[in-house]
Amino acid sequence: MATYVLVHGAWHTGELLEDVAKPIRAKGHQVFCPTLAGNRPGDSKKTGLEEAVRSLVDYFDQQRINDAVVMGHSYGGMVISGAADRLAPGRIRRLVYWNAFVPVNGQALDDMVPPHYVALFDQIEKQRGDGSVVLPFPIWREAFINDADLDLAKRAYDKLNPHPAKTFKDKIALKTELAASPVAKSYLNCAQDVSLPHSMPWHPRLSEKLGLFRYVEMPGSHEACFSNPALLGEKIMEAGRD
Fold first, then answer.
1. How far apart, in whole angstroms, are the C-alpha atoms of residue 220 and residue 147?
2. Domain 3-240, CATH class in plain words
3. Which residue of 5, 24, 95, 225 has the fewest CB atoms within a 10 Å radius of its CB?
4. Cα→Cα distances 153→42, 53, 146, 149, Å
5. Average pLDDT by consecutive 10-residue portion of the chain (242 residues)?
6. DSSP of the chain, one letter per residue?
7. What are φ and ψ of residue 61, in 5° steps?
8. Are 193 and 221 in contact (CB under 8 A)?
9. In this structure, how many other beta carbons lie within 10 angstroms of the beta carbon of residue 190?
């Protein structure tokens, strides 16, 4: 049986991936759902990307995780990329990017999103004054969870938490580019994900930076962890199998 580590995206916590973990555990696999620095209760909203990466590396050490399939969602792609670069060989068996950002050395998440998102989040950060950004509900409803009814969209939105804006702005430092890394890689793409415009798609624009990778597709939005967690869990296993 395999070990899976499910790494959440912006505004989320590990707890919000527990429904996704259920079908994976049902197959006998071990599943961890950590919450990254910056999204834990009481964390500073001035947390940067390197602190988030370090929190995942520390989690591997604390839980003594080895030979793991590591899935990163959205912003989580930045974090798993950094952690894979820092962890010793053998700690990660495969990286799975679920509609996730794939950086090259020196690239920030903000470098990979439309300029109007960057401007919006800068404005929200200034308004909030604590270093955090939140996602306006209309954008959440139409672009992030477009495959859910209004009730589910509202219930899921209420579970989100303010996210540290600095993690979007910080440029990642990678000793080895992902395309050159010997770690196996997969990209899981939800076909109805319009959180990024289809003129700036997740796949193949971002996925191709992985070099050699396995491609897995499923129906659903950017937030399939709420709208179809059972299928998402199955597809993560498909992406993560040997």
1. 6
2. alpha beta
3. 24
4. 25, 29, 8, 6
5. 98 98 98 98 98 98 98 99 98 99 98 98 98 98 98 98 98 98 98 97 98 98 99 99 94
6. --EEEEE--TT--GGGGHHHHHHHHHTT-EEE----TTSSTT--TT--HHHHHHHHHHHHHHHT--SEEEEEETTHHHHHHHHHHHSPTTSEEEEEEES-----TT-BGGGGS-HHHHHHHHHHHHHH-SSEE---HHHIIIIISTTS-HHHHHHHHTT---EETHHHHSBP--SS-GGG-SSEEEEEEETT--SS-TTS-STTTTGGGGSS-EEEEES--TTHHHH-HHHHHHHHHHHH--
7. -70, -45
8. yes
9. 25
pTM, entire model = 0.98
User: Rounded CA gap, 215 and 226, in Å?
Assistant: 22
For residue 189 the two structure tokens come to 């793409």
